[in-house]
Amino acid sequence: MVAQGRQLPPLRRDQPVKRTQTLGDLLLFSRGGISNFYFFKLSRIQVRDRIAVLDGFYDVETNIRSGNPEVRITYDRQRLAELGLTPYQVASLIRTKVRGDVATTFRDENIMAGEERRVDVRVQVTEDDKAHIGSLRRMIVNPDQAVPVQLSAVATIDVVEGPSEIRRIAQQRAAVVSANLDGIDLGTATEMINAELRSIDWPPEMSYFVGGQNAEMETSLQSLFFALALAVFLVYVVMASQFESFLHPFIIMFSIPLALVGVILALWAIQVPLSVIVFLGIIVLAGIVVNNAIVLVDYVNQLRRTGMEKTEALVRAGEIRLRPILMTTLTTVLGLTPMALGLGEGAEIRTPMAIAVIAGLTSSTLLTLIVIPTFYSLVDRRT
After folding, report:
1. I need a surface site. Which of 199, 213, 291, 295 has the fewest CB within 10 A?
2. Phi, psi of 307 (to 5 degrees)
3. C-beta separation of 26 from 176 below 8 A
4. Hey, where are the domains in the chain?
5. The predicted structure's pLDDT at residue 16
6. 219 alpha-carbon distance from chain centroid
7. CATH topology (fold) of 2-65+164-211
8. pLDDT in tens, 1-23
9. Which long-range contacts (CB under 8 A, 24 or more apart) does 247-253 make?
10. What pLDDT does 25 receive?
């Protein structure tokens, strides 16, 4: 979309963040059936490295790092069944031999001192019998049977790299990728991340979710949409009870979209992204911009009750109520001007709200004097 030779930028969901703020967490979930190496490769090599080269991202880190080597034993269940063994029996036996098992407790009684000390007696194989992988392969897994069977005959023993950390979220194994932003807003950063993640060939056992500040922003926007809808509803209910009509409050509520026109044009002109602060200003506008239309429509109804014709009443009301409408708008705009100028510390937080209120109130005032009378004459068919 092009306006006045300039391309209209998309409305962003948050203002540009500083280097002291963070994007939050990108969560990768695994539902099982995927190896540690592949999980490490996806989370660290593909995801982290792809995000790290994007413009505006820095300090991209993940909790998945190179782990320590470990011995993995994979049992042949069919072979064990043929020998009358179970994986649990063999695993318990190997664990007892390698790590040991407390068979009893030795009581060392010091009669003279009147003290008693208990020492665990741990039974395990010697250090030489478990110092090498070959020794582990030669361990006997059926000591009670006549024909000894070595571990290598019923299992595969490999040396692999274990995970440095196992984190679970909602009972699912998860990897966390975090990053900070510089010069880009949160909405744009989220879109860039999603574009990169969609280009990855994900296994069916894995999924991802952009959390952190992005999740908080989504929750805040949902709450603000609800607050805006509730504000509009309450304003309509109050006016309907005062006017004793459902039609005239509906005409007055039409001034709210007129305010949004000014807000959008102002944000586009000065390149201010649509943020939570701006949205708060829009909610405030929902209760302010209807005042001018209330003054105008109420006076039109008063003139019509005296017997004046509809069109004449609209023209007369516009002439008489023009001054108080302009004065009310001008006082509000002037009161918000210092805030809109961005003076003092923390101005970047207050300024977007002031700009939104000023722009919305100004456009609503100007358009109310033209659109509301026209809409009134079209909707109210009484002459």
Report:
1. 199
2. 105, 5
3. yes
4. 2-65+164-211, 69-160, 216-379
5. 40
6. 7
7. Alpha-Beta Plaits (3.30.70)
8. 333 333 433 434 444 433 344 45
9. 247/379, 247/380, 248/297, 248/301, 248/380, 250/379, 251/293, 251/297, 251/372, 251/375, 251/376, 251/379, 251/380, 252/290, 252/293, 252/294, 252/297, 252/372, 253/290
10. 57
Low-confidence ranges of the chain (pLDDT < 50): 1-22
> Long-range pairs for 37-40 at CB < 8 Å and ≥24 separation?
37/160, 37/161, 38/203, 39/64, 39/163, 39/173, 39/175, 39/206, 40/64, 40/66, 40/161, 40/163
Q: What is the pLDDT of residue 377?
A: 83
Token digits of residue 76: 């042949």
Greatest CA span in the chain, whole angstroms?
A: 117
272 token code pair = 């201010």
CATH number for 216-379: choose from 1.20.1640.10, 3.90.226.10, 3.40.50.300, 1.20.120.450. Answer: 1.20.1640.10
Q: 3-class SS at 18?
A: coil
User: In sequence order, what are the beta bridge partners of 280?
Assistant: none
- DSSP classification of residue 10: P
Of 264, 277, 280, 278, the closest CA to residue 227 belongs to: 280
Helix (H) or strand (E) holding 108: strand 101-110
Q: Which of 180, 179, 181, 178 is nearest to 167 (CA)?
A: 178
Class of domain 69-160: alpha beta
What pLDDT was estimated at residue 3? 36
Dihedral sign for Cα atoms in the order 343, 349, 352, 358: negative
Question: What number of residues does the chain have?
Answer: 383
DSSP 8-state symbol, 200:
S
**What's the pLDDT score for residue 151?**
86
CA separation for the pair 96, 122 (Å, rounded): 9
| Joined tokens for residue 29 | 């979930």
**Cα→Cα distances 129→48, 107, 121, 135, 140, Å:** 42, 29, 19, 6, 12
Q: State the pLDDT at residue 18.
A: 38
Which pLDDT score, from 0 to 100, does residue 189 have? 79
